[in-house]
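USER: I would love a firmer grasp of how sequence relates to backbone shape in proteins. This is the protein in question:
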Amino acid sequence: MNRFLFFVFAFGLFSCKNQNSTPQTFHASSSLKYAKGFRIEDHDTYKDIFVKASADSAGEIIHYRLIRQGAKEPLPTSGNIISIRVPIATIVCTSTTHIPLLDYLGDSEKLVGFPNTTYISSPIMRKRIDQGLVQELGIDGNLNIESLLQLQPSLVMSYTMSHDLGSLKKIQALGVPVVINSEFLEQHPLGRAEWIKFMALFLGKERKADSLFNWIEHEYVTLQKEAAQLEIQPTVLTGIPYGGIWYLPGGQNYGARFFKDAGCQYMWDDDPSNGFLKLSLETVFTKSLKADYWIGTGSFETYDDLKSLDNRFAQFSAFQNKKVYNYNKRIGATGGNEYLELGYLRPDLILKDLIQITHPERYENQNLYFYQALK
């Protein structure tokens, strides 16, 4: 991903070449429990998938038709359907959050291209990159289209945060289907994790995705129920100022949900918004001076570095009591942050870390996965 957590499509009918003469029927899709950004309609030999394209409330709904290899293509019900033969043979992804989906579903070898492979942390994918099996495609948002077309991928999976679909409409116009993955729009941690079912639709791995998600959900809900029984609810501050503005998750935001589920009191949990607040340092300082914990401090790794940004940080109780944590424990071989890659799929690991950090009276021997204390 390495984005803070984010094509115009020439709508048309695209289909991959038929490599299998025997039509197959689909595994019936399980119902979606948390994800709100896509919807599945099952048919015997194809599925209709409807995806919300962007965070814009007036954003488009993209209609994909997934047709089983060997099956007869149904008559289109409109001209705005993007048809794709599945299971696909190869894929180009544009966000590191897509990488764990392939790894967990056992289809890592299908990734053939990625923009700026340096950010990928997955050991499986790093090995493939080192072997020259994953093509570097430039910078996300400015893909090398010529190199991408030479790969002849079955599809490109990407994301967008606006109606500006950029170079991706060129890719689609040249005959390569572009699929939007809008996992980042989900407000529930398990909603983002449930997008493994979306990836599975293109790989023919629906049953495996259902099983994996059920396991992740069980782990998360078990931890959530455990945290709800804890008597102490420590207060938590998060984030760091950039350019004089402190960006904080609103009280109904995805990030705030984690703190609530971990049995904490987020300093802005009474805020009704689900986006991000833009506050002055003075506002945050006044409200959070006595916060018990400060979790998530950007790229800062030491207390000295944090203090060098602003001397006033040393006045925070969390700073003075050495209760500042960041999500940089697992850094890939080339500098990618595993939290930003695997975190969407494994919210249970994030939640477990947060519970262990903020309730040391219950968890004396911390074995954190993503987080570590500042030095």
Summary: The radius of gyration is 22 Å. The chain has 13 helices and 19 strands. Residues 1-25 have pLDDT under 50 and may be disordered. The longest strand covers residues 61-68.
